[in-house]
């Protein structure tokens, strides 16, 4: 089986992280997975939403926003503000990003702060939601380290790094990290989010006018877990580089 870009069925696209791309953010990363590029930036507000105060919830809050810039796709994508509302897909994705990050951040240790995570797609070639989660996890880790350096926190409130990857069934074979051409052609579309300890945060999967077997599901899960391990290793390398640069 030959993939459109020549990769092996179990091979993710080249991944890179450029740190510090948004100088005013507490932590920021430009993540590239193949031709998909997403800026993930974290800003901190002192204080929490009113509902947290009213319910007496200890600690802070983390929330995410996701958008595709107009020039991120081959045909211009109008801004959500031009339509007067957030489209359903963007709303679903930003909730997924928020859930994925809250699963690994100890909000009680974060203290009475709100962590805003903005993910803006510069270029889309498949897997924008998974790239956003992977980049945002690194940006949050950098932001938390900055809070420790500023003596605002005693320790980094992150239990684990988290990453995400897509998978699918392409031409009858389970493959990982779909680009746009594959994403249009697969008979099964799957996304998975997992921590560096191998625990799943979320699984999303559906047949595209087709069904899939338990064996195919197992193959996609195996490919996804291995690929997430590779992505988290790349995150760790990027964090080590950032430490050496300080």
In words, what does this structure look like?
- This protein is of the alpha+beta class.
- The chain has one domain: Ribosomal Protein S5, domain 2, CATH 3.30.230.
- It has a 5-stranded mixed β-sheet with strand order 1-2-3-5-4. Strands 7-6-8-9 form a 4-stranded antiparallel β-sheet, sandwiched between helices.
- A hairpin with a 7-residue loop joins strand 1 and strand 2.
- The termini are far apart.
- The mean pLDDT is 94.
Summarize the structure.
This protein is α+β, with helices and mostly antiparallel strands and 246 residues long. It contains seven helices and nine strands, in the order E-E-E-H-E-H-H-H-E-H-E-E-H-E-E-H.
- Overall CATH class: Alpha Beta
Q: N- to C-terminal separation?
A: 46 Å
Shape: globular
Q: Output the number of helix runs.
A: 7
What is the count of structural domains? 1
- Mean of residue pLDDT values: 94
Strand order of the largest sheet: 1-2-3-5-4
- CATH fold annotation: Ribosomal Protein S5, domain 2
The computed structural class is alpha+beta
Order of helices and strands: EEEHEHHHEHEEHEEH
* Corresponding CATH architecture: 2-Layer Sandwich
The share of residues in helices is 25-40%
Strand content: 25-35%
Q: How many DSSP E strands?
A: 9
Low-confidence stretches: none
Instruction: Characterize the largest beta sheet: strand count, sense, and whether it forms a barrel.
Output: 5 strands, mixed
Radius of gyration: 18 Å
Oligomeric form of this entry? Answer: single chain
The CATH H-level homologous superfamily: GHMP Kinase, N-terminal domain
């Amino acid at each position: 089986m030959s993939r459109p870009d020549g990769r092996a069925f179990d091979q993710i696209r080249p991944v890179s992280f450029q740190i510090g791309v948004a100088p005013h953010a507490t932590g920021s990363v430009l993540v590239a997975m193949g031709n998909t590029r997403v800026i993930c930036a974290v800003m901190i507000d002192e204080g929490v939403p009113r509902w947290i105060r009213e319910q007496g919830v200890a600690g802070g809050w983390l929330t995410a926003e996701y958008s595709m810039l107009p020039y991120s796709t081959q045909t211009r994508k109008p801004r959500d503000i031009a339509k007067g509302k957030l489209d359903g897909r963007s709303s679903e994705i930003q909730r997924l990003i928020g859930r994925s990050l809250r699963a690994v951040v100890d909000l009680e240790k974060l203290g009475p702060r709100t962590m805003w995570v903005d993910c803006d797609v510069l270029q889309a070639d498949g897997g924008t939601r998974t790239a956003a989660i992977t980049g945002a996890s690194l940006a949050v880790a950098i932001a938390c380290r900055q809070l420790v350096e500023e003596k605002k926190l005693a320790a980094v409130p992150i239990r684990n790094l988290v990453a995400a990857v897509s998978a699918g069934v392409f031409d009858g074979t389970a493959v990982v990290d779909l680009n746009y051409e594959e994403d249009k052609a697969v008979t099964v579309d799957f996304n998975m989010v997992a921590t560096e300890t191998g625990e799943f945060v979320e699984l999303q999967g559906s047949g595209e006018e087709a069904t899939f077997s338990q064996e195919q599901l197992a193959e996609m899960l195996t490919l996804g877990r291995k690929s997430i391990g590779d992505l988290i290793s790349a995150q760790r390398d990027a964090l080590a580089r950032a430490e050496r640069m300080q």
